[in-house]
């Protein structure tokens, strides 16, 4: 960003700068991709362009600094409340380098020494205040060497013959590593582009690091920032910030060297060199941001390589359309996570997210989780007790990270102890649980009695936040400390007795003994009594109405007290860091306990949800999906009269689902996918009964109808996603298609929908749910044995329709678009007119020179499609190649042709019928009543482009 790097004004005056600004200049040069927050006393200051940018972004005052070399814009934020400012800067796309004074100003001879102690970036925040409850990842991506550029899968057509791109040996491959610096979780994997993209989608890193120089077009030193497609690391689609980092860190030797600070034999851990490079480069970046040297993040000891194929693949599109973590508006209300997340502690909350992100493929692992959930569901008392205890569990995964990094305070240690105190009780609560997964976890719960005992003995029950000012270490833990405290106590007692003694000795009743920070202990005598002051009193301070004195003995005692107190504080700090280091040495054990606690929390939660919401344990078999009385886990919580529905797709069917708008098609499809996903997570499912296959991947393609503004580009995206489904789905996949084809003309859309359905049935064999308003699609079932039609029923009495939300076998009769419009409150005049038009045909039909179909052909026939009723253009245009008899039944005069032009395009090719301008003729001939809003908008968009050309 332009506000980072050395300020232009200072570059010009580099040699003249004062020592302090010179120091600032050097740091801005060294950390040239960050805003440097430069400590000056109680403030972090920024200068020149950086100050202006910060003032704008943070809405703080821009001031000036003047010295002999000039005037510099300056802005500052208070040190003791810096977190919110840093957060705002991160949100605005900046990285922030914190340059602290690392020398006591009183000891500095010249300018105080300063150093960057931390670079805060979106992916590497560790401050509690800046961290959300979930994981914050930073990822690194490395492209494998010696791979030729592979073809783009999205463009590789819909045939499933093997191509170069399919051949595992010829596809472009990447390695990707992820770290959560706040917990120490570290994972590495590699694979072809789509697999790595899935991993990036799944873990949604806040930042992606790549070797500098690879993507920086203008200057190799230019640090790119987020949000710009041009900066997409290796062409991956990532939401987070993109950070180019020192390329050498990703070199094999350097990466190995970095890794050796964390794992004993790096080479043995990875399967491919690029994985080692990605992991080493990422660790080097993590060290750089945390201001530590090689090996300085020792709590990252769990560098794990994983295989993405171990889990069900659920890409970002599927996660979004199934609203697993986020609803369609991007919020977290009414999501699957929201329904399930009644976890007791932060550890469990993060673990649940992990589980939902990566449903399992391994039947045994699924069964193990199910066994645990089942037993916990049955043992209500044990479950409730365990959940209660887990509520007292702190986020010890992050806590132990702070311990390892020397950032934990005494309260953190005490919180760790409080958590460890829970473990014996938790083990007892689960003592009767018999199934292997629960027994194993119970046994894996290390009580860490040593750590618990140490902290219990060493740290007082309610320690202060500061660890340098005493009051942290418990009495009896250390003899030296006890002696110092005794000396201090004794001195204070002596002082406490002094007042009474001196009053007696001097006869001054108003004499007082006091203490202040500046002058220490004193004896205060009011002016009228000054003549009675004994000789051994020395004057210390004169006030308006009194004088303050000390005696040689008081002075001596004061020195003893203060000396003892100071030495006690120092000793305490020393002891505290010793304890902290001892705990840090057990970090791995704590992390293991944390992960068992996390799993237990999730298992208890899933059991609780199962009981609370009446879920059942699904069985797994070899046949396709068979659900009885299935429910949508989220919609059933908001819809008081949710109607359960069956889904019998045992032959791995392609289900074509029709029904009026709003009847429940999307909900139904999503509920089947969510039931499947939950089942593979190991959870029970919202149904009366479910027998399911293990699905390798869930694909979703939701039509463009909701996204009119996106226009043509949305359709393009839709088709790209469709291509990837057709290419990547297997017979073990579950495919959801919701109104695919809606983003283009009705004719094209229907043709595509038809062909896609055939392809999925004939070539792919994936279990498919296809919700559509193209009713003619239901006819495919006549010629394909595994294609089945389902539709949603409504109850119609007079003009009123009631949605029954229940699915039945067979094709739907109509769309009831007008009835839905009426329900939505469209004015009665419009509704009546629509009904007339349905009955009588559209005026445009009669006037059109192309109309070959009689409007009356579609009248009063509930089975007629909107398209057939209103369009019916019989003419053939070059742009549509699918033959009409592919789709039509050919038996009646409601024959549907696929050669129908889009509202605009075919007309535009024709000369004006009325002899006016082409545009005029087009407008006149437009059959507006038959167009969807999207078609109208697309038409308008095309005309605009023509005019603009
Ligand atoms: N099984 C059900 N029981 C009760 N209410 C339901 C059920 N399914 C859906 N609904 C309600 O109906 C609304 C519409 O459902 P949904 O979006 O699934 O309809 P749709 O047929 O896909 O509509 P469209 O074709 O317009 O996209 C939902 O928001 C929900 O409130």
From TrEMBL:
Q: Which Pfam families match?
A: MutS_I (PF01624), MutS_II (PF05188), MutS_III (PF05192), MutS_IV (PF05190), MutS_V (PF00488)
| Record region (Disordered) | 145-170, 207-240, 835-916
What are the recorded Gene Ontology BP terms?
A: mismatch repair
Give the Acidic residues compositional bias ranges. Answer: 221-230
**Basic and acidic residues bias: where?**
231-240, 875-897
Q: Where does ATP bind?
A: 659-666
GO MF, one annotated term: ATP binding
- The protein's superkingdom reads Archaea
Q: Where is the composition biased (Low complexity)?
A: 857-868
Q: Does the keyword DNA damage apply?
A: yes
Return the similarity comment.
Answer: Belongs to the DNA mismatch repair MutS family.
Q: Which NCBIfam families match?
A: mutS1 (TIGR01070), PRK05399.1 (NF003810)
Which protein are we looking at? DNA mismatch repair protein MutS
Gene name for this UniProt entry: mutS
């Amino acid at each position: 960003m332009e506000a980072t790097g050395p300020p232009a004004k200072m570059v010009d005056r580099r040699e003249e700068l004062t020592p302090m600004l010179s120091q600032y200049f050097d740091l801005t040069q060294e950390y040239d991709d960050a805003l440097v927050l430069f400590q000056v006393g109680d403030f972090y200051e920024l200068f020149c362009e950086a100050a202006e940018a910060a003032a704008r972004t943070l809405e703080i005052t821009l001031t000036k600094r003047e010295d002999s070399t000039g005037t510099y814009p300056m802005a500052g934020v208070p040190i003791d409340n810096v977190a919110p400012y840093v957060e705002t800067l991160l949100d605005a796309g900046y990285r922030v380098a914190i340059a602290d004074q690392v020398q006591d100003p009183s000891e500095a001879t010249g300018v105080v020494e300063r150093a960057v102690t931390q670079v805060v970036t979106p992916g590497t925040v560790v401050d509690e205040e800046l961290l959300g409850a979930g994981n914050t990842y930073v990822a690194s991506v490395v492209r494998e060497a010696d791979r030729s550029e592979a073809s783009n899968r999205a463009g590789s057509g819909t045939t499933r013959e093997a191509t170069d791109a399919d051949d595992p040996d010829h596809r472009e491959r990447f390695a990707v590593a992820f770290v959560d610096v706040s917990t120490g979780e570290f994972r590495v994997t590699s694979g072809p582009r789509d697999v790595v993209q899935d991993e990036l989608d799944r873990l949604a890193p806040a930042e992606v690091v790549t070797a500098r120089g690879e993507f920086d077009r203008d200057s190799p030193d230019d640090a790119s920032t987020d949000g710009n497609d041009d900066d997409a690391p290796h062409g991956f689609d990532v939401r987070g910030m993109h950070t180019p980092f020192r390329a050498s860190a990703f070199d094999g030797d350097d990466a190995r060297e970095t890794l050796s600070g964390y794992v004993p034999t790096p080479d043995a851990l990875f399967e491919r060199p690029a994985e080692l490079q990605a992991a080493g480069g990422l660790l080097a970046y993590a060290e750089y941001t945390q201001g530590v040297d090689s090996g300085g993040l020792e709590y990252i000891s769990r560098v794990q390589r994983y295989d993405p194929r171990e889990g069900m693949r659920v890409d970002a599109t599927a996660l979004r359309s199934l609203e697993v973590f986020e609803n369609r508006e991007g919020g977290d209300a009414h999501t699957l996570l929201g329904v399930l997340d009644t976890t007791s502690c932060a550890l469990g909350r993060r673990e649940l997210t992990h589980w939902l992100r990566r449903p399992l493929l391994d039947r045994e692992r699924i069964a193990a989780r199910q066994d645990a959930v089942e037993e916990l569901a049955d043992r209500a008392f044990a479950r409730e007790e365990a959940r209660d205890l887990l509520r007292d569990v702190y986020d010890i995964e992050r806590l132990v990270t702070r311990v390892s990094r020397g950032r934990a305070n005494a309260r953190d240690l005490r919180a760790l102890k409080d958590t460890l105190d829970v473990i014996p009780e938790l083990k007892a609560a689960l003592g009767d649980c018999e199934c292997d997964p629960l027994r194993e976890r119970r046994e894996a719960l290390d009580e860490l009695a040593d750590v618990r005992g140490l902290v219990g003995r060493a740290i007082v029950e309610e320690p202060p936040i500061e660890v340098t000012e005493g009051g942290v270490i418990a009495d009896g833990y250390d003899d030296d400390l006890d002696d110092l405290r005794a000396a201090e106590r004794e001195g204070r007692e002596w002082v406490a007795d002094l007042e009474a003694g001196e009053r007696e000795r001097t006869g001054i009743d108003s004499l007082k003994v006091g203490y202040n920070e500046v002058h220490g202990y004193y004896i205060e005598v009011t002016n009228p009594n000054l003549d009675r002051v004994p000789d051994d009193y020395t004057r210390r301070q004169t006030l308006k109405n009194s004088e303050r004195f000390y005696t040689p003995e008081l002075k001596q005692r004061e020195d003893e007290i203060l000396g003892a107190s100071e030495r006690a504080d120092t000793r305490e700090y020393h002891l505290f860091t010793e304890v902290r280091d001892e705990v840090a040495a057990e970090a791995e054990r704590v992390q293991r306990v944390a992960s068992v606690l996390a799993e237990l929390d999730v298992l208890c939660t899933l059991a609780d949800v199962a009981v609370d919401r009446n879920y059942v344990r699904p069985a797994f078999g070899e046949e396709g999906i068979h659900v009885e009385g299935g429910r949508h886990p989220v919609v059933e919580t908001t819809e008081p009269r949710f109607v359960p529905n069956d889904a019998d797709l045992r032959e791995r069917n392609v289900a074509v689902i029709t029904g009026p708008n709003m009847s429940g098609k999307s909900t139904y499809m999503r509920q089947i996918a969510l039931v499947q996903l939950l089942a593979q997570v190991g959870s029970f499912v919202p149904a009366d009964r479910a027998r399911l296959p293990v699905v390798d991947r869930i694909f979703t393609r939701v039509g463009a109808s909701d996204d009119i503004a996106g226009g043509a580009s949305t359709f393009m995206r839709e088709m790209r996603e469709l291509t990837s489904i057709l290419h990547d789905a297997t017979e073990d996949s579950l495919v959801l298609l919701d109104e695919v084809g809606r983003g283009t003309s009705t004719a094209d859309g229907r043709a595509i929908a038809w062909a896609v359905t055939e392809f999925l049935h004939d070539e792919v064999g994936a279990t498919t749910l296809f919700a559509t308003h193209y009713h003619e699609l239901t006819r495919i079932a006549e010629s394909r044995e595994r294609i089945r039609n389902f539709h949603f029923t409504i109850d119609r009495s007079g003009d009123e329709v009631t949605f029954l939300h229940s699915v039945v076998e067979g094709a739907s009769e109509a769309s009831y678009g007008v009835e839905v419009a009426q329900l939505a409150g469209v004015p009665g005049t419009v509704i009546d007119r629509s009904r007339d038009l349905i009955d009588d045909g559209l005026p445009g039909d009669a006037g059109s020179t192309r109309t070959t179909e009689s409007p009356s052909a579609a009248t009063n026939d509930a089975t007629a499609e909107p398209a057939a009723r209103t369009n019916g253009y019989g003419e053939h245009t070059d742009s549509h190649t699918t033959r009409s008899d592919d789709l039509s039944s050919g038996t009646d005069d409601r024959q549907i042709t696929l050669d129908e032009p889009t509202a605009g395009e075919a007309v535009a090719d024709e000369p004006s019928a009325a002899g006016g301008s082409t545009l005029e003729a087009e407008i006149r001939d437009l059959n507006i009543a038959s167009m969807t809003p999207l078609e109208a908008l697309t038409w308008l968009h095309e005309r605009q482009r023509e005019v603009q050309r």
